[in-house]
Design a protein that fits this description.
Blueprint: E1 2-13, H1 16-22, H2 24-45, E2 48-53, E3 57-62, H3 65-82, E4 88-100, E5 103-105, H4 107-118, E6 124-127, H5 128-134, E7 142-148, E8 157-162, H6 170-177, E9 186-189, E10 193-194, H7 202-217, E11 223-224, H8 227-230, H9 240-247, E12 251-260, E13 263-272, E14 277-287, H10 291-305, H11 326-341, H12 345-359, H13 364-377, H14 388-402, H15 407-419, H16 423-436, H17 441-452, H18 457-470, H19 481-490, H20 493-501, H21 511-522, H22 525-538, H23 545-554, H24 559-571
Helix pairs in contact: 1-2, 2-3, 7-10, 7-11, 11-12, 11-13, 12-13, 13-14, 13-15, 14-15, 15-16, 16-17, 17-18, 17-19, 18-19, 19-20, 20-21, 21-22
């Protein structure tokens, strides 16, 4: 047997079985022609050798890693251009091989095959040693998708996804291929399917999944995608691997909930989407009053099988039951469901929270929810009466008194005090909330707004972007005005306008007003007048415009920022 170092290319024809079932003879003929006229000459021209053909697979070796990568890129481009109905996945590895009777074997070959399995149709995945050899030698845009554990391979392999032969912008990479995997175990909990006969029970299955997300988020050793982004897949047909790639995670939890009378059945499973393997699954048939224990069991099981040691102390592991009363808990789930809908759902959420408190006066989660909802209402269309900020403050204060160890209490009180202009108190509680739950995109959004209005708009933009990584599909829910107002305070008025114009589809009437202010600062009177007309047309009849202005200016810790905003308001004809 001969041993040597080689660059191994493993390729697989996508959808071969389907093509064969549709037209066996035609597929065999077309694939043979494609390989003989395109693939084999291309491999030879780049100094490689096709080792063997395996129906829908091709194995080739090269003496040069650079040649192997350059050939694979041209391979994908030619097949895409000249044989549109066919596409390949390609994996490339540099490793030691064993040569016997013209065939090649060994771990180097096995890793190339596993890399091919990670690639997207028309895509290429390479091992870390391949990437190190070609970087700087070929103009490539590559995405680091982290260490990957492969079946029957002893050590994890660093994997990169090649984006193409030409450099791409970061925006293109995000749009086409999701995010690079974080350095720690990353996980998304997808919405649980409602298996009950009553579609009105949807809020219950959503609430169970949301609570599992919250509990997993307490672990600082994990990277957990926020509820708003996980739930974009709700009610849709999707591939788990594709969903994980778009969210930028390795692990996915999915499941279902069936509620009938006082009985409940919860199923859950944990999937390694990168490796394409099931790590754990279980089914729980319990009484409804045991639902908190079921959630506990799911979280513990998920944490137990994730790679590496997840320290229970890091999550301060004592399950915080929001209430011992199931009826109150049901109202909490209904409130969460309505609050996520925003708009007129905010008032419905507040009503549900109050009903939970009527049943359980010591329900801290309900008070925290009221504080958040009341604070949201002043900025949302027609959802408040008189001044909700004082109510938000009192509810947040009560939540903190009832449960000072829960991040939601600190977050609610911190956000309420921020909106009232108590910046140092807000900072103290928001930092505590981030420590208790490092994966909360919502809390980071609150912190970003505090940074923007206390003289650090650059830091606010950075924090906002870190929140978006935790909640990549929910920029609307994180409220882009964090960015828009940060850019305004930097004097970057056109950037502020660009962000605000992307928000015009949202039912937030004051967006037109903010665009008008930025155009006024740029001296564009025509555009300013146009957006002021839109603002006036959408202004609710009962809205207290003076309260909005006062609330906005109160957010500013620095006199220079208050003066900056006052100048903008006066430029559009408003005396504040």
């Amino acid at each position: 047997m001969e041993r040597r170092l080689a660059a191994i290319v493993a390729a697989d024809l996508v959808g071969y079985s389907r093509l064969m079932s549709e037209d066996e003879a035609g597929t065999i003929s077309a694939v043979s022609h494609l390989i003989s006229t395109t693939v084999e000459p291309l491999v030879a021209r780049h100094g490689g050798r096709v080792v063997k053909l395996m129906g829908d697979g091709i194995l080739a070796e090269f003496a040069s890693v650079v040649d192997a990568v350059a050939c694979s890129i041209e391979w994908q481009e030619k097949v895409s251009r000249e044989a549109g109905r066919f596409s390949f996945r390609i994996g490339i590895n540099l490793g030691d091989i064993v040569v016997q009777d013209g065939d090649i074997f060994g771990n180097g070959v096995n890793i190339a095959a596993r890399l091919e399995g990670l690639a997207e149709p028309d895509g290429i995945c390479v091992s870390g040693n391949v990437y190190e050899e070609v970087k700087g030698k070929l103009e490539l845009a590559c995405e680091d998708i982290g260490q990957q554990a492969f079946k029957n391979i002893a050590e994890p392999v660093r994997v990169y996804r090649i984006m193409g032969a030409e450099p791409k912008t970061a925006g293109d990479v995000r749009k086409n291929s999701g995010f690079a995997l974080p350095d720690k175990p990353s996980i998304a909990v997808l919405p649980f399917t409602n298996m009950s006969d009553d579609p009105e029970q949807e809020y219950f299955s959503d609430g169970i999944a949301e609570d599992i997300i919250t509990e997993l988020s307490r672990f600082s050793e994990l990277f957990v995608i926020a509820r708003n982004s996980s739930f974009v897949f709700k009610g849709k047909s999707f591939d788990i691997k594709d969903a994980a790639r778009k969210l930028g995670v390795q692990y996915v939890v999915e499941g279902s909930v069936r509620k009938a009378g006082n009985r409940i059945r919860v199923t859950a499973q944990l999937i390694d989407a990168v490796a394409g393997s099931h790590l754990w699954a279980d089914r729980y048939d319990r009484q409804l009053e045991d639902i908190f224990d079921v959630q506990d069991d799911v979280v513990r099981a998920v944490v137990a099988v994730l790679p590496g040691r997840i320290a229970e102390a890091g999550a301060e592991w004592v399950r915080r039951k929001p209430t011992d009363n199931l009826t109150a808990f049901d109202y909490l789930l209904r409130a969460q469901h309505e609050l996520a809908r925003r708009g007129n759902g905010i008032r419905k959420a507040i009503d549900h929270y109050h009903k939970a408190i009527e049943i359980d006066p010591d329900c801290a989660a309900a008070y925290a929810g009221i504080a958040v909802a009341e604070g949201m209402s002043i900025w949302d269309l027609s959802t408040y009466d008189d001044n909700p900020l004082e109510r938000a403050y009192e509810a947040g204060k009560r939540a903190l008194e009832l449960d000072p160890s829960d991040y939601r209490s600190h977050a609610a009180f911190g956000e309420a005090t921020r909106q009232l202009g108590h910046h140092s108190v807000a900072g103290e509680h928001l930092q505590r909330a981030m420590k208790l739950n490092p994966n909360s995109a919502q809390v980071r959004g609150y912190w970003a707004m505090l940074q923007a209005y206390t003289g650090d708009p650059d830091g606010a933009v950075e924090t906002y972007n870190s929140a978006i990584r935790l909640d990549p599909f929910s920029q609307d829910n994180l409220r882009k005005e964090i960015l828009a107002e940060s850019y305004y305070m930097m004097g970057e008025y056109q950037l502020s306008i660009d962000v605000l114009e992307s928000m015009l589809k949202l039912p937030i009437f004051y967006v037109h007003q903010q665009i008008a202010i930025a155009y006024a600062q740029l001296g564009n009177a025509q555009a300013c007048d146009h957006h002021m007309e839109k603002y006036r047309a959408s202004l609710p009849e009962s809205y207290d415009e003076k309260l909005l202005f006062e609330s906005h200016l109160r957010l500013c810790a620095r006199q220079q920022d208050r003066d900056h905003w006052r100048e903008g308001y006066r430029l559009i004809g408003l005396d504040v």
